[in-house]
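Q: I'm teaching a short session on how sequence maps to structure, and I want students to see two examples side by side rather than one. Could you give me a first protein with its sequence written out and its structure tokens following it? Keep the formatting plain so it prints cleanly on a handout.
A: Of course. Example one:
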Amino acid sequence: MFRKMVFASLFLLPCVSVAAAQSSPGAKAQDDTTKLIEQRVRFVRDAYGLDPKQAQRLRSELMSLKSEHESYVSRFERTLRREAKAIADVIPQQDNYDDAMKAKLTERMQNDIYKIHAKAPLSLANVVKKAEGMLSRAQINQGRRKIAAQFAAALKGAPLDVAKIDRLVIKPIVPNKHPTQPAFLASSDQPNKQGSVSPKKGEAKPTPPKRVVAKPIQIKPQRRPQAKPPLNRPPRATPPNRPPTPVRRPAQRKPASPKKPLPPAPPTEQWTADFQKTVAHYGFSNKQKKVGQTVLKSCLTRAQAYLQKEKGAIEAAKKSLAGNEKAKRLAELKRPLDKLYSELNRRLRSVATIEQIQAAKKKQQEKAGKK
């Protein structure tokens, strides 16, 4: 059944691409990303009770993701438009699919839409995660209870999953029960209200073709041919006994190797010095340096907020534990810092151009060769 559904969805894609091209809106001139950031900040502020200082810190972090979010939206805009057009117009017109197949295709494409929205840099799930990093456990639980109460009708008794919170604010695409036009009709050949093709400017209206009544076809009775006598053929020789074909066993897949743990992050006081080394390593311009400073500020702010929040737990682990238990507990508490430091380095590398990366690599190889 799954294989049949995949083939069906692949068959729909050419139809969707033409249909989506007809209804694709132009790029909006207004700054929608800034409006989205303000909506996100307002939502989180009302749900979790952020003070003005926390709201401003969250707004600054989201503004640093603005260009990254706009690039992500531009990359998936056409895919979202095609998936929505498929659900609304194309799937309902496929008479060769039963209702179960249409429902499965619609659910599959709707889940794809939800996943694309959830992975956006400014998705509601990502914004809520950043906001909760500034708050205590009591504030987090209180805010989640408020969100669950707000979307109680959509949750239908299910617990709130922050990772899937975008599904609560994104309206699902509703299939059109009575599509007004075929999904794969060319835009220049769209029918008018009378059902004829609209003429172009400067051209005369085409005259409707005359109806030709087909003559009835007369079917003459045919005689059945007499059965021919069987031919006397010599018996076929029996093939020699062949050894049985060996059964091929499927190759066993190797288990996926576990991901390597992130290296421990240095103290936050050293992050600025590491940033300066990265700037010198790639030879950042002034514009790139400003972008990198924004990234550094974002990561440092979140790291310091986390240290302030877990200060008591870290001090308790240092005093009450010893040996391997102490090292294990401290490593567990500092794992979010390791992720933030890894994010800092990854985002700084993305600022560098391909030419800068190649030049830095060549310089590093030359330096290693001299040794």
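Q: Perfect. Now a second example for contrast.
A: Example two:
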Amino acid sequence: MIRKREPRWQSAAHRAQVAAELMEEAESLNTTGIATPAEVTRSKLPPPLQVAFTAGTAEVPAGDSEPVDHSTAVPAPQAPAPAPVLPQVASREAVARGDRDGALAILDAALTAAPDDALLLLERAAVLSAGGRYGASKQDLERVLQTDPAHVEAHMSLGVLLSRRGLWIDAVMHLRRAVELEPGYAGAWYQLGESLNHLDHLGEARAAFERAVEIEPRNTRALYGLGIILDRLKRPEDATHMYRRSREAAGR
């Protein structure tokens, strides 16, 4: 407690003592933790920074470092890179333009990098076959089967190719293998029925066509083939019924 100043204290020594006590008491009452100007001077501390915050960015006074961005940076959306064109697709586009040689060049280049790629070999075999190059097409299909003897599509394609060359017995061997590997393959059953019909195996041909129709009731070619077999079996009424079903399935 500060003593009441009385006239007898008015000497210089008394006034200095009172002043010291006042300062001591004032400092003892400073409980806010905020440095007084005297403390700042004594500690040689820098003056407080005046910081203004905007949307996520702290702005500092001129002369200090650059503003610090406290926001999370969101990268600008990037356009997706265009998907590469598959050689098979480019080849089919070339064939559609009537450029079969260009299609073969595309597939040849792709097979140089991946000589055992089954999809590329099947695609090239199809282009070669369409151009009447059956020997080269057969080589590509056999190459697929060397790598994968159970490749259904290779057996199917080779069976069709051999049928076009009139090699019905060899065609039947590959087509039988195709339906063994994939019993639900209606197209293979139809091709098998065609080959068996040319070998005059009428009972087996009929069964193959019927299996194709069972899988795909509106398979027009299988229905027509079944009509042919029934005609050959001297069953004209049943044959006519199958021909009618084939026309109806085709929308005619």
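Q: What should students look for in example two?
A: Point them to this: The two ends are 119 Å apart (CA to CA). Also worth mentioning: The longest helix spans residues 12-28.
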